[in-house]
Write a structure and sequence with these properties.
Blueprint lengths: L1 H9 L12 H12 L11 E11 L10 E3 H13 L5 E11 L1 H12 L5 E9 L3 H5 L4 E4 L4 E4 L12 H20 L5 H8 L11 E4 L1 H5 L5 E2 L2 H19 L15 E2 L6 E2 L19
Parallel strand pairs: 1-2, 1-3, 3-4, 4-5, 5-8
Antiparallel strand pairs: 6-7, 9-10
Length: 287
């Protein structure tokens, strides 16, 4: 027995090592857990923020609801404002609305950014999503996207006294003032759409689609992702020119060669050692 122990002690022992984690394994785990594939990693000067589902306020919504938590978005906006590598913010909306004060807080944060911000409504930008949709420097809406405008409502305990209705009216005026001051819609038309009866089966208000939102002055243009990015890059270029930054010598400048930016006839060429892969602003689009 001692000899066998000595042989075991002297014999080389095979050690099992854990296989090194490979990119394929991490991709498979991501696909199994989230149903997503890894997007190509690339640095960008644009920060993209999505507002989906229901805007969650001071109360936690049920777990089956898809929500956007305002306490998550506010630090991201602060970080985007402070990060010198971020030159613009793209806000993509597909929301049913939610908490009024949380939505207004997000909208005020976006509107107070010193960097260009462009909003894009895909699917829907309903209820308190309307102020968020108009909070950027330029707003776009997909051709099939919808926006529901209706009076605010209150959940929970309601005391039947005049002060309750005065409070609701003040809250509603906050929304009206913000929307009318950040869009081209008039206060009269916005309130007319808000208090319209006979269109919504279980509510007062109006649902407008794509081009109707533009014709009313609520949204600036009908367009998709490409239109929004082109406009955002154009705003970034304009901001650089106003601040004295020369886009021709800035390595972060994202435009393609031969693209007209700003004043007609002004053509900006990228440096020779930099490929001209980028997004064309509206001036370079074919008519």
């Amino acid at each position: 027995m001692n000899e066998s122990l000595k042989q075991d002690a002297g014999s080389p022992r095979s050690e099992q090592t854990e296989p090194a984690s490979s990119p394929d394994k991490s991709k498979m785990e991501l696909l199994q857990s989230l149903g997503q594939t890894m997007s190509p990693a690339a640095e960008s000067n644009i920060f993209c923020m999505t507002i989906i589902g229901q805007v969650e306020g001071h109360l936690v919504l049920p777990p089956q609801n898809k929500t956007t938590k305002y306490e998550h978005l506010i630090p991201q906006l602060v970080a985007a404002e402070q990060n010198p590598k971020i030159e613009g913010v793209l806000i993509v909306l597909n929301t049913v609305g939610g908490d009024v004060e949380a939505g207004l807080a997000i909208a005020e944060m976006i509107s107070s950014l010193s960097k260009p911000a462009v909003t894009l409504v895909l699917g829907g930008g309903h209820s308190i999503g309307v102020p968020i949709a108009v909070s950027g420097n330029k707003s776009f809406i997909a051709e099939t996207a919808t926006m529901t405008i209706h009076p605010i409502r209150m959940n929970g305990l309601v005391i039947g006294v005049p002060q309750t209705f005065e409070y609701l009216e003040k809250m509603q005026e906050r929304v009206v003032r913000f929307v009318t001051s950040h869009s081209n819609i008039s206060e009269h038309l916005f309130k007319e759409l808000m208090f319209k009866t006979g269109e919504l089966t279980r509510d007062i208000g109006t649902t407008i689609i794509g081009a109707d939102a533009v014709s009313s002055g609520l949204i600036d243009e009908v367009g998709g992702l490409g239109h929004a990015l082109r406009e955002l890059n154009s705003l970034i270029a304009r901001r650089k020119s106003e601040s004295g930054t020369d886009p021709m010598t800035d390595p972060a400048f994202p435009y393609s060669p031969g693209v007209t930016v700003g004043a007609p006839g002004t053509v900006i060429q990228p440096p020779v050692n930099q490929p001209g892969a980028g997004i064309q602003p509206p001036g370079g689009m074919p008519s």
